């Protein structure tokens, strides 16, 4: 993968960033060591690392538990993905980016906790950007329940 990344940043391809997923276990999710190695490569080749930051391991376990309990409606989405899991993964991604000396763009920031983690790392001088999703910052999940 590292060699492919090196090729893709060449002018004839025009790629300048690579996206990593810390969520979606069994599909897109990378392990921490893969993410860190990817950021080291991005740093070395001058690319921007982008990350979808959620704790995929815990979400997978919570999702399984909810399905086992028969919770299959949209309310299960927020129950399996509490704000703290996004905030934790965002902070973890920011720490690893700092250690890799790699600029980081956190996509789809849905929670105040994740935004706070980004702000704290920016205040330390780390090159971290966040892409807020306005709807995610303005709602509390209660709209998933029939009233």
Automatic annotation (TrEMBL):
GO terms for biological process: pyrimidine nucleobase catabolic process. GO terms for molecular function: dihydropyrimidinase activity. InterPro entries: Metal_Hydrolase, Metallo-dep_Hydrolases_sf. GO terms for cellular component: cytosol. It comes from the Eukaryota. Belongs to the metallo-dependent hydrolases superfamily. Hydantoinase/dihydropyrimidinase family. This is Dihydropyrimidinase. It comes from Trichostrongylus colubriformis (Black scour worm).
């Amino acid at each position: 993968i590292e060699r492919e990344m090196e090729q893709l940043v060449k002018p004839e391809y025009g790629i300048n960033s690579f996206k990593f997923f810390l969520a979606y276990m069994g599909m897109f999710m990378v392990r921490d060591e893969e993410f860190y190695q990817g950021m080291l490569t991005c740093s070395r080749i001058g690319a921007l690392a982008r990350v979808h930051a959620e704790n995929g391991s815990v979400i997978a376990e919570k999702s399984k538990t909810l399905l086992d309990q028969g919770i299959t409606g949209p309310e299960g989405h927020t129950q399996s993905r509490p704000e703290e899991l996004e905030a934790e993964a965002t902070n973890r991604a920011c720490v690893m980016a700092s250690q890799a000396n790699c600029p980081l763009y956190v996509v789809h920031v849905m929670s105040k906790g994740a935004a706070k983690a980004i702000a704290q790392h920016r205040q330390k001088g780390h090159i971290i950007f966040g892409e807020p999703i306005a709807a995610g910052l303005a709602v509390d999940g209660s709209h998933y329940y029939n009233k």
